[in-house]
Amino acid sequence: xxxxxxxxxxxxxxxxxxxxxxxxxxxxxxxxxxxxxxxxxxxxxxxxxxxxxxxxxxxxxxxxxxxxxxxxxxxxxxxxxxxxxxxxxxxxxxxxxxxxxxxxxxxxxxxxxxxxxxxxxxxxxxxxxxxxxxxxxxxxxxxxxxxxxxxxxxxxxxxxxxxxxxxxxxxxxxxxxxxxxxxxxxxxxxxxxxxxxxxxxxxxxxxxxxxxxxxxxxxxxxxxxxxxxxxxxxxxxxxxxxxxxxxxxxxxxxxxxxxxxxxxxxxxxxxxxxxxxxxxxxxxxxxxxxxxxxxxxxxxxxxxxxxxxxxxxxxxxxxxxxxxxxxxxxxxxxxxxxxxxxxxxxxxxxxxxxxxxxxxxxxxxxxxxxxxxxxxxxxxxxxxxxxxxxxxxxxxxxxxxxxxxxxxxxxxxxxxxxxxxxxxxxxxxxxxxxxxxxxxxxxxxxxxxxxxxxxxxxxxxxxxxxxxxxxxxxxxxxxxxxxxxxxxxxxxxxxxxxxxxxxxxxxxxxxxxxxxxxxxxxxxxxxxxxxxxxxxxxxxxxxxxxxxxxxxxxxxxxxxxxxxxxxxxxxxxxxxxxxxxxxxxxxxxxxxxxxxxxxxxxxxxxxxxxxxxxxxxxxxxxxxxxxxxxxxxxxxxxxxxxxxxxxxxxxxxxxxxxxxxxxxxxxxxxxxxxxxxxxxxxxxxxxxxxxxxxxxxxxxxxxxxxxxxxxxxxxxxxxxxx
Length: 722
Fold this sequence. Notes:
The chain is α+β, with helices and mostly antiparallel strands. Among the domains are: 1-32 and 220-366, Up-down Bundle (Multidrug efflux transporter AcrB transmembrane fold), CATH 1.20.1640; 64-191; 420-546, Multidrug efflux transporter AcrB pore domain like (Alpha-Beta Plaits). Helix content is 65%, strand content 7%. Helix 4 (79-95) packs antiparallel against helix 7, helix 8 (185-219) packs across helix 27 (644-671) and helix 10 (232-246) runs antiparallel to helix 11 (257-281).
């Protein structure tokens, strides 16, 4: 490796130029990658449930395509409110929304409104038994709704955003003096990604500035601080280029890859730069310091990247497309970051003349004087008796508390409770409406689906379903039965004789998986115990598929973590040429995860597909620190023939500053997420920062104590290098 880095340094201009060409080519390809925030990508891609859902959506494409405007009408509809709803209905039609339905769609209601307010009130009072009751207005008439459907060709990310951006300003311009909300699944799908993009821009921009500020304070040179970020941008652009070549789109999960590689890249680069600065302060030339620093640390950096990549790649075992893509491309980006770190970074550092050690902030002193590093070194000297019992008690507490952590997911998940979207959703649900649907999909001969026996069975199903607390209403063929124009429109929504299919629409609140999954199971049991007289019946729809996705991710996450632990142990055992040392190195990496799950239980944070990703990020950070400390310990023990205790002190002295700096940088960057509009990003930031500090303490105190015990007891008697 010494000869390799010597060649890189001597041909640095060629390396920099070649990297620039690769980066520009990758940027051109990266610009062609499309964004896809559709909810369907979160669904399992296999099994009978998915096959039934796909068939259902082919026949009934309007499910989850409703755009709805809710307006408060206290005391019932008045003429002013009627005119507002009429204008909004016109706005929807102009925006491309079809099948727009509201109280004014009923001819006798429209005629009554043309006469007087009193006639309008009488007409609506007489319409309480109409199928639109519970859909176009609530039970007491205090909220009225205008709703329509996006045609299938417009139910995509770009058109959903276009419709939402066309409707919202026009409604706001009316300056309504009553509460209103524009909602519905297409509107939610348009607004949530926009909020996420704002947060990601804030985090990436603010994170890069914060990282630069931390690094500049430590290194006191703009060039060195910028160099720390040098491997991240090319790695991300090449990752995007690969996504473009394979036809993979950017999703809600893969959009977080820049955050991942920024963290991983900063951690390894910090260790390299600290060692490089140390060598400079000892009198080495710039080129000599570069070659020596990279030669010493390339092995540790490779294994930190490999183990972190394994952790993310293990997510592919979930079998969920969007999660597998996130795991694969995160792992690819991490390995690419390592590749650019050992090619571009030494070339950049070697550019320019020799620089003497910076007396203002020599690397081993800048953070080496911190109390945590001093205490860790003293603990390594004194063989402190309290370290292992204290950490053991903390781990046991995490296990006990973590056994009670809850599991709960929502359809509109991860937004803070005070956000406008959640506040509107709560208001709409409290008014008696449900924005989401669980659908009973019926297949059979058309004349049988519309038979008297089938109508009676459907009514019994509706009666059973209405007893559920999360159900806000149902709609089926017995409710419409043909007649007026709106009835015919509803019939087309519920009954497709040409496709030999019908459905029962069950509107539900977003009550979370702890309530929704048992509800779906009870409905399945009822249908199984009371099969329809004709054809088949299955509970399906987005509500079911979304919660099925969450269930599969949570169920498969445990095995994927165990797989990652097993693979990383094998890597550790190979790295240190000792299965026992591999076990010891894993202990401080598992410890932060136990603390994390215990804190989640204490704070009432539920496990869900979004929060479990914290474990992958946290595990990667913890493993990186352990490998750097163990790698330096191994080098001093074998390379210089030091005693285990002296090697521990030296390893803490040499790597401690970089461990502290990388922890500060990573924690500071993730704490920016506390300002996010998303509860999940708030939690990711808080929990990841907590885990980073826990990992630092474990690596500075627990790992040395374990190593002292193992050598003193004779459990480990050697530490061979590879």
